[in-house]
Amino acid sequence: MRRTLTAGTAIALMTGAAMWFVTGAGAQGGGTIEADVKYNGAAQVEKLKVNKDTEKCGTEALIEKVVVGGNKGLANAVVSVPGAKGATKAKAVLDQHGCKFVPHVVVMQPGELEIKNSDDILHNLHTYSTANPSINKAQPKFKKTMTEKLEKPEFVKITCDVHSWMLGWVAVVPGLAGVTDKDGVTKIENVPAGKQKIEVWHETLGKQEKDVDVKAGQVTKVSFEMKGK
Ligand SMILES: [Cu+2]
User: Fold this and answer.
1) 3-class secondary structure, 117
2) Kind and range of the H or E element at 10?
3) Is the previous residue joined to 82 through a cis bond, with omega within 30 degrees of 0?
4) What is the pLDDT of residue 85?
5) Cβ distance 164 to 101 under 8 Å?
6) Kind of pairing, strands 105-108 and 167-172?
7) CB of 107 within 8 A of CB of 221?
8) CA of residue 162 to ligand 1 center, whole Å
9) In this structure, what is the dihedral angle of CA atoms 67, 70, 76, 78, given to the nearest 10 degrees?
């Protein structure tokens, strides 16, 4: 019995069969993609003096355009598998906290994005997009949460008209995706086995793609090196 369980059956047993059929994530025999993204160039982080809402914002802001961590790892890059139409996990959430967008890049499948204001001051969300309608909306301090629709795949830049330094991105991607951490690494689980195209996008350094062969129950590593522009 122990050897004849497929990965799918095992997960179904653990999470409940009903759940399994609803999500359908990863299908039978999904694998994991571990992507590492490197950048051989210099970090680009601008410092700015802040003289507005300093109680919440602090007196210095960082505009993080290229964040390079240990071992040349590139943070904030979106790695996606367009062909892996897995179920969305939790609803994507973007917070405005300390007069920063947190996370700097939020990844979501087409649908709804929850936008929080945990600063207790006025922010004004302003998006720059072509495929999706633009959003330009005040979020006063009493409005802790609002929900917006982003239904078309696109990388959408977001700013705040109250705090000029605030910069973030919403990655609306059709398939499974992740955002690289400070070491330039992200893991994507439940990727259907077989040939998959892997795309990487970075707000300053552009896009790259690679084909990989995902094997059921295994971790497939893929590396990217972004070029400067
Ligand atoms: Cu703001």
Assistant:
1) strand
2) helix 7-15
3) no
4) 80
5) no
6) parallel
7) no
8) 5
9) 140
pLDDT classification of 7: cutoffs 50, 70, 90: very low
Q: What is the DSSP letter of 93?
A: E
CB-based neighbours (< 5 A) of ligand 1, an ion: 123, 160, 162-163, 166
How far, CA to CA in Å, does 23 sit from each of 88, 110, 210, 229?
8, 16, 27, 40
The model's pTM:
0.85
What span, in angstroms and rounded, lies between the C-alpha atoms of 121 and 138? 11
Distance CA 139, CA 182 (A): 30
Instruction: Tell how far the Cα of 182 is from the centroid of ligand 1, in angstroms.
Output: 24
* Residue 19, both tokens: 């759940």
Q: What share of the chain is helix, strand, coil (3-state, %, to 5)?
A: 10, 50, 40
Residue 61 token pair: 């802001």
How many angstroms is it from 192 CA to the middle of ligand 1? 40
- What is the token pair recorded at 107? 């990844």
Instruction: Report the alpha-carbon distance of residue 45 to residue 100 in Å, rounded.
Output: 14
pLDDT of 194-210, one tens digit each?
999 999 999 999 999 99
**Span 49-61, pLDDT tens digits:** 999 999 999 999 9
